[in-house]
Amino acid sequence: MASKTGSRGKRGGSSIGPAIFWVFTRLVLPLGLIYAVLWWRTGVAIDRQLDSLRPFMDIRRGGTVLGLNGDVGIRKLVIQPQAGSPMPAIRVTADRAVLRTPGIFWVLRSAIFGVPDEIPSRFGFSLSGAGVDGPPEALEAAMLGGHVMFPFELAGCEPGLTLEVANALGLRDAEGNFALTMEYGGADHLRLRIESETPGQATLSGDINLSLGPAGNPSMRLLTAGFESLNILIQDQGFGGRRNAYCARKLGISPQEFVARHVEAVRAGFAADGLVPGAAMDQAYTGFVRDGGKLTILARPLRPGPLAQLQEVGLDGLGLFVDATVKHNDDFTAPLVFLPADQFASTSPAAATGAQDAAAVPAVAAAEAPAAPADATADEAPAPGTEIAYDDLPAHLGAAVEVSTSLGTVRRGVLTGASSISIVIKLAPEEGGFPLSMPKYNIVKVRLAPPLTETPETQENAQAQ
Which residue ranges run through the membrane (predicted)? Predict the structure, then answer.
């Protein structure tokens, strides 16, 4: 009996080898062959596309990229104009250039049956380790402006980016990474994401969230998509400090003086377009220029509507449709508004000095608001329902208010900021509880309101905004 049991054990152990062989021959090997064929077909398809460009461009590439996550592309890409081309003789290189797809099975299905009509769950493209090289004269001719997607890069210092400036700022040999991706999460929600990085200089990332239109043709659903939110983050990784130091040396002034000169130049640029920026210029942006760090811009619609309606709206009209804010690092959130220069000049105390001088006046911060007299009594405080003149609003920071607008809406919340061109209220809990910036030209009437049902921020915190 013992020998029979041992015999069975040996037979059971010997069955592992055939099982492994079966898995390898029936599963691993076929999948490997499919991947190899797909990898080969991908390389052939890429070469076919590149061949159509070779009469105009000298294109060289390394290996083929075919990731399980759906990345399809090439390594070690080099592109430059053919000899005799009128284009600058610059050479564009990239470590990786890929098309982003939902996954390898999507690629396989597309290769066999064609690209599906439905919106893919993931689609986009990316460049990694991208750079530009060539003779100095060719690089100089190719310098068209910005390089690191930094806001208002050289305002107040240089009219544009030259090879000399690029060398001084460490951009001559800088390589960048860029990606644009569309992600469809189902439930009619679509996110467009952009990512740009120049290591050691700056990064920019942003999301636009959309709600797709009614079911039907994918193209029409995209055209009728509604705007849900915008989130942009710009992070300084050293470019700002190098720019400030370079421009200060060039102009013979201190870096602090250049910061003021730069901000004035940006204001002048807006004034040339007939615009006056709001508190964001004097608060969040100035801090970002001076100290670096992060600059965050958020926006959400005041009411649901298609994204297409914003395409032809100027900056001075965005306040009618969008609540936008800007923040430097973890400081207070400032309203991001732009006013027409003529409207600002006709409605502000600074009209006599012109829109440009008005733009240079910092917003009235809460810390500058006049404090109530120490001997004031409760009987002297205005009662709810009392109308407050716009110019008197800084004296009522921290108070509950009702704001009637030219759009026919009435907003209720705590007044947390007031300047000559806009106010900020923290909406009542039943209205969302988030900060809302409101430009002056939209405000018809402001009244004091009864205290909110939820305890608001303390006046000290309100004044910090």
Answer: 20-40
The number of folded domains in the chain is: 2
Helix (H) or strand (E) holding 353: none
**Would you state the pLDDT for residue 415?**
87
DSSP 451: P
Q: Quick one: pLDDT at residue 453?
A: 60
Domain at 436, CATH number: 2.30.30.100
Decide which of 112, 142, 172 is a domain's last residue: 142
Q: Is 334 within 8 Å of 419 (Cβ atoms)?
A: no
DSSP 29-72: HHHHHHHHHHHHHHHHHHHHHHHTTTTTEEEE--PEEE-TTS-E
Specify if 229 maps to a domain: no
Fill in the amino acid letter for 4: K
CA angle 113, 118, 119 (to 5 degrees): 125
Q: Is residue 377 part of a domain?
A: yes
Q: By three-state DSSP, how is residue 390 classified? A: helix
Pairing status of strand 72-81 against strand 57-60: antiparallel
Q: Please state the rounded mean pLDDT for residues 385-405.
A: 88
19 in any annotated domain:
no
Task: Looking at 144-254, list the stretches that DSSP marks H as alpha helix, in order from N- to C-terminal side.
Answer: 163-168, 218-223, 239-251
Overall pTM > 0.85 = no
Task: List the structure tokens of 246.
Answer: 């370079």
Residue type, 340: P
Q: Is residue 316 part of a domain?
A: no
Q: How far apart are CA 423 and CA 416, in angstroms?
A: 8
Range of the domain at 97: 37-142
